[in-house]
Amino acid sequence: QCAAVCPTGAITIKNDTHDVWEAIHDPKKRVVMQIAPAVRVAIGEAFGYEPGENTIGKLIASLRKLGVDAIFDTSVGADLTIMEESAELVETLSEEGRKYPLFTSCCPGWIRFVETKYPHLMKYVSTSKSPMEMFGAVIKEYYKKLDKEEGKETVSVAIMPCTAKKYEASREEFVRNSRPDVDYVLTSEEVIGMFKEIGIRFDRLEPEAYDMPFSIYSGAGVIFGATGGVTEAAVRRVVADKSPKALKDIEFIGTRGMAGTKICELDLGERTVRIGIVSGLGNAEELIKKIESGEEHFDFVEVMACPGGCVAGAGQPFARSTEKRLRAEGLYKNDKALQIKRSENNPIVKNLYDDLLKNREHELLHVHYPGHKADA
Ligand code: SF4
């Protein structure tokens, strides 16, 4: 195993490819993978595709060639995150005189930054787990019974755009029943290395589809990979008007684009909600200073540690500003091509709430880091 350094958290993290190969070759193990939204529009660059080209079908086909047992999309987890986080947002909007916004929680680089530099702000960070961890918990729960029947052990692997996700997966808050919900995280670059190691012809493979039962996800989940995507997905959820026109209008409230700081306002009937979107921790710091001094007030703030969001994660093929923009555009294109645009309309999400998650939402979908508020 070799070590890599996380550029966002200055944390030394190991490369997990060796352990994942071992799990794949172990007949007693069921290797289940989830793929983050941002990976689909970047990984193809290593095989001659243009930045932003959605190569998810070829990625799935390539992973099957490796011998992976089941492959799902982290966008399902993102749909769950939106359901939980937007419920928290609605709750915080009713708090009179609240000085601080609800900060998003899906970027571990940002969480680490708050914990170390602004611990007093932890109680304003959403307790909703990241899409990877929500889906990791769902995957482990889903296969529990089958593992027992078949005498197998599910190994949960997440393909992510950054090494900060390895740190997140290793946190004690995500260990349940003595095992982490996500056993290994592979970056896009590590997966590219695995394909090259065994000579997978990524470009020659016919695209394949995800496995059942988690094969449906919304466009809202997919756009999580670009800065502003979480906010746009949450806005789609909280607005009362669910018409196609309203959906189109949301595109133009100011969530999109590669600017490091974006501010938008949303009219929710009785009140106007003020939203800040930042990518890059320097921009986050600037925004925090303005909030603390009273110069700015926000109801909701989305923070992504990487400038541009996960499309530009340090575990992805190298990206300059053009690649970042094209990758983000690729995600919005993917959103356009999907029938389901809103997280609440994903039938898998509905089924999960009616069944596997019933009365266990807080246990499986929320996290309490040190300094976090006590109740979700
Ligand atoms: Fe990882 Fe960067 Fe995305 Fe944060 S913004 S989750 S550090 S890729």
Automatic annotation (TrEMBL):
Keywords: 4Fe-4S, Iron, Iron-sulfur, Metal-binding. Signal peptide: none annotated. The keyword Iron applies. Its cofactor is [4Fe-4S] cluster. Transmembrane segments: none annotated. It comes from the Bacteria. This is [FeFe] hydrogenase, group A. The chain holds residues 194 to 569 of 569 of the full protein.
